[in-house]
Each structure stands twice: as C-alpha cells, then as structure tokens.
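Good morning,

Both structures are done.
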Amino acid sequence: MILEKLKLKSNQKEYLIAIMILLLNLLFLWVIRLFEEYIYKVINVPEYLASHVFLEFLGIWIFFMTYAITYYTFNKNKRLRLLVYSSTFFISGFVNLFHTMSYKGMPNFFTESSAQKATIFWIISRLILSFGFFIAGIIPIDKKTNLKRGYFQVGSILITILIFYIGAFKTDFFPSMYIDGHGLTKLKIFLEYFIVFILGITIVFHIKDTIKYKDKSIRTFYIGLCYAVFADFTFTLYRDVYDTYNHLGHIFNIVSAYFILKSIFSYNLDHPYNELSKAKKRISKYADTLEKIVEHRTSELQSNNRKMMKDLEYARRIQQALLPPKFINIYNTKFISEYIPCEKLSGDFYNIYALDEDNLAMYIADVSGHGVSAAVMTVFADKIMKPADLFISSDKVVSPSEKLMSFYKEFNRANFPDEMHIVIFEAVYNIWSGTMSYCSGGMNVLPILVRKNGDMEFLDKSTGFPICNFEDFYSPKYENGYVKLNSGDRVIFYTDGLLDHLKDNLLLKKEAIINIMKENKNNDIKILNEKILSEIIKTTELNSVIEDDITYFIFEA
C-alpha cells in the first residue's frame, strides 16, 4: 500500500513539473500583457532584423546539431525514434533557414521577401516539427528497426526541396497568414493553436515515458516541449512582424531547442558511459557471492557480460571520436598519429588544434592504469585541456606551463581517487616565429626532435610534476622550455607504451626511433610513419599480449 502511494506520488510529480512550467510561463505572459503599454513596442527594422537573424541562426544551428546526433548515433542502437527525429530536425532546420532568409525586410531570397512568404515557411516548419515529435512520441522508445537511415535522408532532402519550391514560387497557393496593417489572420492563429494542441499531446507521451523509464533526459525533452508550446502561443499575439511579442516568441523557441538538444545529447551520448558504470557495479555485486549463486545465475551473468561488452564497444567508439584525425595538414604544418590501445578502452590520449591564427597547440598524456577508469579520466582531462574559452585571452595565448598549472588545480578540485594520476606533455607552436614552447607534467619519456639536416635533440628543457591529488602537500612549479624549429624539422611525441617492456625486450628502443627518423628525414611524413609501424608490428608478432597502450604523433614544421 505504501509503495503504491509512493509510486502514485512520483507519477504525479512529472505532471506537476509540466503544469508548473506552463503556469509560470503563462504568468510571465500575463505580466507582459498587464504592463503592455510600457513593454510593447515595434522595434526598428534594422535592429529587429539583426536580432531576428541571430536568434534564428542560433536555433537553426541547434536543430542541425540535434540532427547530427540522432542521425549518426542511429547505427549504434537502431532505434526507430532516432530516424524520425533526424528527419524532423533536418527538414525543420532548413525550412527555418528559408523562413529567416525570406523575412520581411531581408534581401530577396530567390523571390521577393515578405511577411506572407516568411510566415508560410514558419508554419510549415512548426507543423513538421510538432507532427515529427508526435509520431516519435507514439513509437516506443526502445523500438528497433533495420531500416536504412539513407532512405530517410533522401526522403528528407526531397521533402525539403518540395517545401522550398512551394513556399518560394507558389506563395499565392496559400491563404493569407499575415496582412500588413491588420496583423495575423484567423487561419494563422488557428494553425498556431493546432500546433500547440499537437505539442500538448506529445508532452503527455513523454511524461509517460519519463515515468516508465525513470530517465531524467526524457524529462528534459518534455520541458523543451513546454517552452515550444509557449513559443507558438506567443506567435498568436503579435500585431506587427517587428514587435515585442514576435521577438519574445523567438526567445521561447531558442529555450525550447536548447532543452531538446540537451535531452537528446544526454540520452544518446552520455548513456553509454552510464550504462557501462551500472553494468560494472552489477558485476562487482555478483562477484562477492559468485561461488554460492553461480549455478543459478550463469545465464544472467552471461547476459550482463554481453551487455557490458556492447557498452564497452560503444564507449570505445565514443572515446576514439574525441581524438583528432590520423592525418592533419594545418597552417603549412603536418601531423600524423597512431593510437593502439592494449584494451578496448585506453588511458592514453592526445589532441592537436589551432589556438588562433598564429598558434597551434598539441599535447599527449597517459592516465595511470587502463580500461574503464582510465578512459573516463581521459574524457575529463580532454575537457579541461581544451575548453572553449580558458586558454585564449584578449591579449595573449596562455603558455603550456600556465595551462598545466590550471589543469593541476582543476584535477585537485575533483574527487578522484588518490592513486590516479596523469603525466602529460604540452606544446604550443607559433607558425610565424617557428618557436615551440613546451612544458612537461611529469612525462617519463621526452619528445625527440630530428632536424631537416639530421641533427637530433630531446625536448628536455622543461620539468614538471605529474597531475595528481597532492595540492594539500605540494605546490608544483611548471616551467616552459623553448626550441626554434625550421621548415622540415620533425618532432615525435609519444607515451611510454612505445618503449614499454614485452618479455624483457623493449618494444621499440629510442635509438631505433631516432635512426628511423634520420633515415627518412627526406621522405614524406606518411612514409616515416609506415616505417615506425612496421617496426612495431615486427616486435608485437613475437608477443601475444601488448601490456601498455601505444600512442604517438609526429609533427612536421
């Protein structure tokens, strides 16, 4: 009886959340209506168009991001709902683009831009979006399909082209949606209310899914739908295409798109790690009493093991997706890399990216251990090492030593086990001066520089402390080293897996690496990489097990 009451209370909670969001937004609109004489205005055309274009393109970008996630994760889980989402966001994104470019006051977009033309595209986009969400909501969330995503993509493209043709060249085919000097027509208002009705039903579907699967990401989705309801409701209130209500509707639309993107991103990209963690906990729990229950739980254990391996494969793909391409040609420099994990998940990671138009950043790191814990740590470390706005200020590029100091502090703020640590080597190359600044964070192997003329040296002018939970006892000092590079000079960055022991034999000795680089200094960087790989293959053929991850990349100035 008590459990049933708790379950009922939990179910009511989801409906109360949706009702509260709707009531708060309704109160917000009521306040605006109450003080309309102070708030409402018709914004001047240039100012409104600039704001409108920004908001619309932000929404379009979010739609295409959501499309990319649903389209490219479909092959991993084969969920039919993802196919419907991908087509919905693809078509709606492009039709929103047509709406933006056709807005009254914008330059002609194939045909004359007007309020009627823009409104037609808007209504079509919202109808497709609402019906797409409605159809997806009907489909069970775990419904699988063997349909090819390419068919849906082709269909989406054809529908988009048809909508563009009708909206741009057959505008007279549609009844009036907006009349200058009078405002919205009854048809436009009716269609907006119809869209609100469809979205309202879809909200109920997703509330039921949230209750059934107890998944917060689905809750985030129906919260986004609640804001979509108010976006369309607000679009029934404007009297001029440049007024306050029209602008407010676009803001509601952005908020809605954000919550929907967050939900889909969380469900399709975060869940593999979450499921992997759950599987790991289940297996640990069963292992404590395995001898007593092995006869009764063999089949269940096998099922969990299959699920864990499947989740591990998903996690491996996601981890490898964080790495840069194997071959990069940027700012007249070249990079080539190799990544050979000893297990499905690796503790090695690296990244190469442009800081600005003058500087390239690169780093390579090795997390203690292997497998799941090390792989999860690499995701954290990669996020800290390459955030969107931490290492570029208005007047300078943050140096490698400053970056590692910041990384050390962030690591100590997190609640990681004391035994976990990271060794890392960071470098920044200025393409105009040819100067490479670098800093070591406890890296136990040094990058090797082989110049175009055959001279060799190690990047050994920097020392530093490993990234670990030691801030309470020791405050490290990271210092930069500098080296001047000329065109054609090459540097190999690597982890100790390249020099690790296999049955008392070094996988690849430093002297061997140096000789290979010298012998191939005039060959293309890809040929150099093939030579190193062939030496690795010769050694690993003699050993059945690789005991450490093998990771390296070569930079050519």
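Second structure follows.
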Amino acid sequence: MAENQTVRFGIIGCAGIARKVARAIKLAPNSTLYAVASRSIEKAQKFAGNNGLSGTVKTYGSYDQLLDDPCVDAVYMPLPTSLHLHWAVLAAQKKKHLLLEKPTALDVGELDQILEACESNGVQFMDGIMWLHHPRTAKLKEFISESNHFGQINIIRSTSTKPATQEFRESNIRVKPDLDALGALGDLGWYCIGAILWAKDYKLPTLVNALPDVTKTLQGSSCLALHHFIGNH
C-alpha cells in the first residue's frame, strides 16, 4: 500500500471495545471504516445502527464474507481469545493487515503461528495494547530510566481492577474457559506483568511466586503473582 493511501478497515466481531475502536478508525486521518461483520447479519446491522454507521459501512453476516471482500485492506479483530488463532491466520492468508485485540493468543505457540502467517503473507501485525504504544508511555520510560532524576527501581507494585456485576460473572466471555481461557490473568493481570517487564527493560525475573489458581469471591475473580529480580524486587 502507498504511504498516503487510505486504509479501509473491516471489523470482525461486534464486542463492546469495537465501538471505541470504530470511532478511532473514523477519526484517524488515513483510515476509514469500510465494513463490519458478525455471526449474523442482524447483529452486524444492529452494531452499525447503534454506532451511527448505517448506510456508511457494509455489513456482513459472517466473518468469511468480510475477509473475502477485496476492498478491505485491514481487519480489527476483537474476538474471544480462543478464536484468535484461526481467524487471525485466515485474515493473513487473505492478505489483510491485522489489528488484533489483546490478549493476542492463548500462548506463545499460537502467537508464533499468527506472526508467521502475517510475515509469510506480507501483511502487518499490530496488537491492540493502547498504553504500550502511547507517546506518554515513551516519555514516562525516559523519565524512570534517568537515575539522576528517579533513582533506582527497587519495588514495583502494579494492580489492575474492574467492577464485575453478577451478569458479568455469570455470562461474560471472559469468565468462560471455552472462550477466554486466560480469565482474569489474560484480561487484566497481563497489564500488571507487562508494566513490570516494561519498567525492567524486559529482563525476566529470576523467581516468580503465584497463586496456583484464580481466587473467586463474591466480588469477582483475581490472580496474584510476585516477580523477583536479582538485586531488587
């Protein structure tokens, strides 16, 4: 694609986060939202209607239909994590650039397959991790890396939480192992781990202590881990 060419995006899956990304695509100067696909045409049309897109985007009742559209240059994929491998690889094989929602895969092996598919088909891969790619994050890294200003990092405490309603705990895909097997760790916990590794220049800890299973309470589910590095914590 030419550098000044408008990227025509398709969205595969009408998850809640897709509303925000659809708005961002529309606001980006070199992007346009071209199509939306769900498992049924009714869901795709409802998503378009609820987000002021009716009449301005194509709607498809299957993911395959969107991937077969030659006018779609790139796809944003906010599907359950268990579906990422299949649809991300297929998107790459259809020569679609890929913006994949986090967590990108269930494990490193699956992510390697996705990256290999993108590389072998000459398409770009991008994850949906906003904070990691934000200019403020780069500026913060400059600040904490300057020991004269910040000192040595000895302890890092990183926490990520969200309110969980009864409906969320009973029916959300993030508490269903067959759809999002990583649970609280994949949804929020990896933010904490990622921030720690980011602050430590991605040096791996020498020891990790973690709960053997998620803690389930009336307030929701949680996970806990301690990372130990040589010389500090």
